[in-house]
Design a protein that fits this description.
250 residues
């Protein structure tokens, strides 16, 4: 199996009792296979301080289960993950989630400025080229840099993983610029976790998340809709990545 692209996402922190009740993240890895099917590759409980060594262990586990190649990995800027990806799958492009980059920007801004900030950031992530994106970002810095330097720093720190999709055509951008493929999964998981309150241990929390995932899309209609949307990007991916998709299907 060769997923393309996988999302790596954190579910809202879950209350787990380990001596004392603590908020802990549960990580979900979702992949889109070469056939356009969405597959959950695994669930892992963390403590929130995960780094490159932790992600190396997880990605190696996934590779050992048969994921030999990954075209792109879309994530939320988890610390150490890009370095681990480069070691396990050297040809993989790491792309940060644009939607979450925007959401994180709004955390630093007053509510009355959100619309103005969004209006100036849109030309950055919809630019035709990285050079054009840099020009538009400079305009944003001129307008808001003094009032919200933390937003500027956020984008500057994420720039290397933000820009890969700007080199691709529209069909690929629609697929890889956001982790929306996994948002419906997380919404179901959040409801299940919230209903339970807290869990006696890590195993109980993972079981709850697993059961929530198993209850998704019982008729298969959601999967079918996603697969049809995937078809429009398939040729673009295959050409852009020098036939790696075709090789995976053989």
């Amino acid at each position: 199996m060769s997923p393309n692209p996988p999302d790596h996402k954190i579910v809202d922190r879950t209350k787990i009792r380990d001596g004392a009740v603590a908020n802990r993240p549960i990580y979900v890895a979702l992949a889109v296979t070469v056939e356009g099917r969405r597959d959950i590759l695994g669930l892992w409980a963390g403590d929130g301080g995960e780094g490159a060594k932790h992600w190396m262990h997880i990605l190696t586990e996934i590779k050992n289960r048969g994921v030999n190649d990954v075209l792109m990995l879309v994530c939320d800027g988890l610390r150490g993950l890009p370095d681990a990806v480069e070691t396990v799958w050297p040809r993989t492009t790491v792309q940060t989630c644009v939607v979450h980059l925007l959401r994180n920007s709004f955390r630093y801004a007053a509510r009355q400025d959100w619309d103005k900030i969004a209006k100036l950031l849109k030309p950055v992530y919809t630019a035709a080229t990285e050079e054009a994106a840099l020009e538009r970002f400079a305009e944003f810095v001129d307008a808001w840099g003094k009032k919200y330097p933390a937003i500027v720093r956020l984008w500057e720190n994420a720039w290397e993983e933000f820009t890969p999709f700007l080199r691709f055509d529209t069909e690929i951008r629609r697929i890889v610029c956001t982790t929306n493929a996994i948002e419906s999964v997380n919404a179901r998981i959040r409801r299940a976790v919230k209903a339970r309150g807290h869990f006696p241990n890590e195993t109980a929390a993972l079981k709850c998340v697993y059961m929530a995932i198993m209850s998704l899309d019982p008729t298969g209609k959601g999967q079918a809709r996603w697969t049809m949307r995937w078809k429009t990007a398939l040729n673009a991916f295959d050409i852009t990545f020098d036939g790696r998709l075709s090789a995976a299907r053989q």
